[in-house]
Amino acid sequence: MKAVVLNRFGGPETLRLEEVERPEPGPGQVRLRVRAVGVNPYDAKIRSGAMEAVFSTPLPTILGLEVAGVVDAVGSDVTAWSVGDEVLGWSDTGAYAEHALATTVARKPVGLSWEHAVTLPVALETTDRVFGLLGVKPGETLLVHGAAGGVGTVAVQLGVLAGLRVIGTAGPANQEHVAALGATPTTYGEGLVQRVRALAPEGVDAVFDVAGKGALPASIELRGGTDRIVTIADGQAAAELGVVFTQGPPRRSAERLAEVAALAAEGRLVTTVGRAFPLADAAEAHRAAAEGHGRGKLVLTA
After folding, report:
1. Residues 250, 132 contacting (CB under 8 angstroms)
2. Of 104, 105, 143, 283, which has the maximum CB count within 10 A?
3. 219 phi/psi in degrees, rounded to 5
4. Strand pairing partners for 68?
């Protein structure tokens, strides 16, 4: 099969399409004929070698956490899935490939496209994990930095569905988009504290930083301390300022993913694809991610 292989750490040019052996499913696994793959900032951190200080990645490796595709083989003990089932979930082996193995998957609703289905697994898992760390409750005000991105788009809507009042920061071009998601939008940059205080004179109860664009000092000022602030994007500043930084452990639930996928298929949760690239153009997708695509998820199609 063809797969995008990382043989050495470095820039996007290190991602090369190669012929590799097709994986075989083990106990509890299904093999998917991949139709779509989500491109995440985490992928770029592994590719660059930035994650080596946290954990070692043996090379060569195949990137890609989230996958949507058609089951084409199942492990000997798998009874819940059959060949031909259309699913989405989290890859065990790396999803930048024509085939990938997975353990935790949910059925893809008929009304949800492959590209939009694959925007959900990482954003859902991340949002549920962060909401748990923040301890958010209905009626509270949540500030989301990076509300128009792949994770932010889902986080805003899940917050609204959970009964939160959400204020979302985004660039000037994405203000209407953030408002359409159910949040009160505002822009980044100088004057952020004053703008948020004007929107929420009673204060904000929690802050979810998806963007990592230097918003932590303003968040601390708004909260009056570091309590109930979580970032997934600014680990260095978090360590310096005493803010919670999280990249795991994952909380992957097939049942929860099925629930949210159904909401997306029904139009009750909006999924946004920023741009789709063929699998062979994975390097170009990483370049686009580094430039900042602004809205929605970048996706590879196989």
Report:
1. no
2. 143
3. -65, -40
4. 36, 88
Q: Under 8 Å CB-to-CB from 69, ≥6 apart: which residues?
A: 32, 33, 34, 35, 36, 86, 87, 100, 114, 302
Q: Which helix (H) or strand (E) holds 68?
A: strand 66-74
Could you tell me the residue range of the domain that residue 114 belongs to? 2-119+272-301
pLDDT in tens, the chain (302 residues): 999 999 999 999 999 999 999 999 999 999 999 999 999 989 999 999 998 988 899 999 999 999 999 999 999 999 999 999 999 999 999 999 999 999 999 999 999 999 999 999 999 999 999 999 999 999 999 999 999 988 999 999 999 999 999 999 999 999 999 999 999 999 999 999 999 999 999 999 999 999 988 899 999 999 999 999 999 998 899 999 999 999 877 889 999 999 999 999 999 999 999 999 999 999 999 999 988 756 889 999 99
In this prediction the pTM is 0.92
CATH number, position 230: 3.40.50.720
With 0-12 / 13-18 / 19 or more C-beta atoms within 10 angstroms meaning exposed / middle / buried, residue 301 is: middle
**Residues 232 and 279 grouped into a single domain:** no
For residue 115, tell me if it sits in a domain: yes
**Token pair for 239:** 């360590």
Counted domains in the chain = 2
CB-based contact 6:15 (threshold 8 Å): yes
Which DSSP symbol is given to 109? Answer: P
Give the C-alpha separation, 242 to 227, whole Å. Answer: 9
Strand duo 99-107 + 30-39: pairing: antiparallel
Backbone angles phi, psi at 127, to 5 degrees: -65, -45
- Distance, in Å, from the CA atom of 187 to the CA atom of 189, rounded to the nearest integer, reads 7
Give the type of residue at 209: D
Could you tell me which residues come within 8 angstroms of residue 216 by beta carbon, excluding any fewer than 6 positions away? 209, 229, 231, 234, 237, 238, 241, 243
Length in residues, the chain: 302
Count the neighbouring beta carbons within 10 Å of the beta carbon of residue 286: 25
**Nearest-angstrom CA–CA distance, 140 and 159:** 10
